[in-house]
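Limitations
The structure tokens in this dataset are predictions for the assembled complex, not deposited experimental models. Users should treat interface geometry with appropriate caution, especially where small molecules or nucleic acid strands are included. An illustrative entry is reproduced here so readers can see what is and is not provided.
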Amino acid sequence: MVRFENVGLRYGLGPEVLRDLNFQIEPQSFQFLTGPSGAGKSSLLRLLFLSLRPTRGLLTVFNHDTSTLSKDSLATLRRRIGIVFQDFRLLDHMTTYENVALPFRVMGKDESDYRNEVVELLHWVGLGDRIGALPPVLSGGEKQRAAIARAVIARPQLLLADEPTGNVDPNLAQRLLRLFIELNKSGTTVVIATHDISLMDQYNCRRLVLHDGRLHAYD
Amino acid sequence: MTDMRTDLQIDQELMTSRAITILPRGETPIVPKRSIAGRALVAVVAIMTFLASLTTGAVMLVRSSAVEWQSDVAREVTIQVRPVAEKNLDAEVARAVEIASAVPGVGQVRAYTKEESAGLLEPWLGSGLSLEELPVPRMIVVKLPAGVVDLAPLKKALAEKVTGASLDDHRAWIGRMRTMARTTVAGGVGLVILMLAATVLSVIFATRGAMATNRPIVEVLHFIGAKSGFIAGQFQRHFLMLGLEGGLIGGGLAMLLFGAAGIAARMSAGTAGGDQLATLFGSFALGWGGYLAIVAQIVLVALVTAIASRRTVSRTLETVE
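Predicted assembly:
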């Protein structure tokens, strides 16, 4: 699904923040991405999310060499990837329903085609009674679930989550992790970037550890 | 059964029914319709369009007035008959009138009477003036129709047949007038260009400012897989409408102002002040050309706003990627 071959990344003329990355992410796999602050987790997520291109090496996503793709092709490919941001990034002037439905709207789908699907998903993540609420009145946990719902509504093949449990209490963190596991069981490849060792200890899966720009995979 | 429901059940039912009823029927625009930055942009666009429209209208008024003055003077020539010893001035004047009337293409020819000539000198020499005692030249006003009339034969005939006659076609005056009118119009055009440049620049900067608050929206759309054209289109449409709104407010107010000034000028026609204004600024009517220029400015400002937003989106996307 995703393949890194000798990938390096630097910003401008600065030093390489990621060096000699060689690893693969298999379809329907579940992995944690971890490492100390400044190790390059966010940069690696941006590479995975096609928001950055490597400065050297080969990055293949869904069998496409990202260095050869046009911006529009990257946007099309990005629709197969869902991302959950640590700061949610919900649009404050749109309701929870509209935020979650946004990926469909961007694809140019008619509202009547996705309406039921969005409502169903919102109920599934426990936001059935918050459909018409605007993000500023949602709690942290509700925002997080709305952000997750938006990331998975278009059934992405790859789901990336950046510190998804960073802003919630341990109880909700457990529930969110179970949600990711459910999604993985239904066929979605999941990569969760986290500092939370206790969270990782609860689920025995592959760990990708970044240290000083280099990546070590522990299967 | 109903009585047996718990409060919690009733609450849940109410919440569910509320959720269904508040499900949006129409889609909220991706770019928020009303924001503080958006309103500030409309205000900037409105003010700048108003000022630019006022400048353009004023320059067009001055230009048309200058052309009117020029054509008024150009449609008239004057024959001056100086008194010469042993010559009957009245007879010379009558001959000059006869010669002038005979020239093809010449309109009305009228000699100033002695009283009218005295009236012309009254501000300097006082009333009760007897022209018989002074060697004051007599004036003949020759009206010319629109178009070119060759005055050379008239000049020649006057020089030959009327003693002391000379023809003044106001060439020097018209020359000065033309120079003044051209300078005024050139200055005005320069002013309009500067004003438009200031309008365009302030609209661009105000648009960028308004766009800065929308950066999170651009990023979110980008991350969920929206193509650059889709994102740029959303903002371009939104900002085109903001630009049009501001432009219509500013340009519309300027048009109303010119319309009201025109009506006021027509109503004050005949009064001393009104006539003075009419002499200086013509009829104060902007004309279709002026109103079209203002409409063109409104469209220009709206397009500049839309293009500036599109360029800002492109730049934002470049920094996101």
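Some entries come with short summary sentences. For this one: The first strand of chain A starts at residue 2 and ends at 10.
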